[in-house]
Amino acid sequence: MKHILPLLLMAGSVCAQPPAKRPINPSDVARLQTISDPQVSPDGNWVAFVQSSVDVSKDKRNADLWMISWDGKESVQLTNSPDGESTPRWSPDGRYLSFTSSRNGASGSQLWLMDRRGGEGKKLTDLKGELEEYEWAPDGKRIALVIRDKDYSDSAKTKIRTPYVMDRYQFKQDIQGYLDRRAAHLFLYDVEKKTLDTLTKGIYDESSPVWSPDGKQLAFVSNRTADPDKNENTDIYVMAAQKGAAMRQLTTWAGRDGSPVWSPDGTQIAYTRSTAATNFIMYDQAVLAVVPVQGGEPRLLSLALDRPVRNPRWSVDGKAVQVLVDDDRRTYVGAYALADGKLSVVAGGDRAFSDLERHPKGYWATLMSEPQLPTEIYAVEGTTVRRLTNVQDEFVTPLALATVEGYTSRSKDGTQVSNLLFKPANTVAGQKLPAIFFIHGGPVGQDSYGFDLSRQILASGGYAVVGVNYRGSSGRGLEFCKAIYADWGNKEVADILGAVDQLVQKGVADPDRLGIGGWSYGGILTNYTIATDPRFKAAASGAGSSLQLTMYGIDQYVNQYENELGAPWKNLDKWLKLSYPFLKADKIKTPTMFMASEKDFNVPVAGSEQMYQALKSLGVPAQLIIYPNSFHGITTPSYQKDRFVRYLDWFDKYLKAPALQAQK
């Protein structure tokens, strides 16, 4: 017996070992939870939020409302309907939680009200138009609504839709489809009487309504130029919160003003404004501004920072404005002191913050993700960052995720570029890997230290995966962002190739097994790159285009085209120069898989079809994948999984060594 006991203990210890971690794979798309829209209760004890999960049987995501206690010890699911709920907002007294939903067969999205003490949500509104935004008044008796006029265009009694009739300069938009002239206006809803008063009328849209602390006024955003389709100018307006009140224009910048928030004493409004004052301001970055409610010159607090800021929020005492700052692969929480205009970093590091909501004690609720952890809710208390939710633990625990590190490269003209390198888990030091350069879209935006599902899944296939913050990206200053204006496929390609050269020189990437891919502008840059350099053995171009001349009038970017490139009939040479991947398709030797969404009005399917047809005509291996009934961003879970499976299969076919192929 004395020999049996140790054996039993040894067996028990073996059984107690945690299971070995496995690589992430495309099927994990269905396991990933998404968290959004955290809202702190008026008493500061709870944070309500939206949690979305995949319903595999229906092949769609379903969003429910949850709340987590401020100490992180208690989590409560508030809704569990198949229709989905979003936009949770606390009533000012904290007794109710409102939300939007089209549940129970409701006509469009309606406003619902849930007593936090328990019970089912009750439908509060029966709106005829489309509810886009809402905001509680400080007294809890009224709600400001943004409602888009009802669509009466299709009155056919059969299943045959009446023709679309359009007369706008910009007549199409991804997801929305063909655009009519229905406007979005401000309304005032009386919670007790259930009556609706119209605050604004006319041909212009209003958005982003926010109440003054005393509940007497509303600030909002509108473009009231002669033809809003032809520019991106928006301004902030203020009006009394009552029917028939006149509106007063507060800002006059010819660029973009938005995201207004009132100071606690109601005397100032903080907001973001564009750096440029031009018709077209894609290559730009938002600046934090503060203006007196009575009018006057704004203070541009973050102009000297030369980094984009967003999500402005006043401190409880009104002495500072908190913002999120995008800075070279990171997004941190910063605070601008009103007294001297100085910036302090509240919470930062190699991670990405993505939301910010004030706690009554001066703390902050925020969303944040890290390279190996998807988005969770955190409390920021002083400079201490404390995790509240643990929603992603079940997703992450069984996975052996890629490590993520930053590296810099230099392009042929000497420009320094910031990149992110994903290495498969347990990579042997000094091992050369097949590499995929997976290029971000935008182009304005940045690859950050936040969790990146796409690159994690690609890395799980045994690849070094790289994100390149090429010129045109944000987070490196305005001039870096503007560098590609009217000069697409030039400096960005040089930056991508510089990042490739650096990784090859470091002995990380195998020069004989290089791949490239991306979606949207990442797909466009994939086309530009393989038409420039033949070193890539495989490519996956998603939602891209190359014959840019043919995009005019079939996508949603007419304003950009005419302002950045000029009309095609006036600047044909410029358009043809930027169309070189198609016009010089005979230089492409890289086997390429093209992907597109059937109903994409952002980068229409024609862009991928043209390049596919060209390579097939030239005898270059090519494949075309079109996702039915999908828009620019693919949201159907099975299609998301399918795209990852096809990425890996395509790259494996051309980048894996014969010995590795034989083992498959």
From TrEMBL:
It comes from the Bacteria. SUPFAM superfamilies: alpha/beta-Hydrolases, DPP6 N-terminal domain-like. Keywords: Acetylation, Hydrolase, Protease, Serine protease. Residues 451-656 form the Peptidase S9 prolyl oligopeptidase catalytic domain. GO terms for biological process: proteolysis. It holds the Pfam family PD40. GO terms for molecular function: serine-type endopeptidase activity. This enzyme catalyzes the hydrolysis of the N-terminal peptide bond of an N-acetylated peptide to generate an N-acetylated amino acid and a peptide with a free N-terminus. It preferentially cleaves off Ac-Ala, Ac-Met and Ac-Ser. Also, involved in the degradation of oxidized and glycated proteins. This is Acyl-peptide hydrolase. It comes from Arsenicibacter rosenii. The lineage of its organism: Bacteria, Pseudomonadati, Bacteroidota, Cytophagia, Cytophagales.
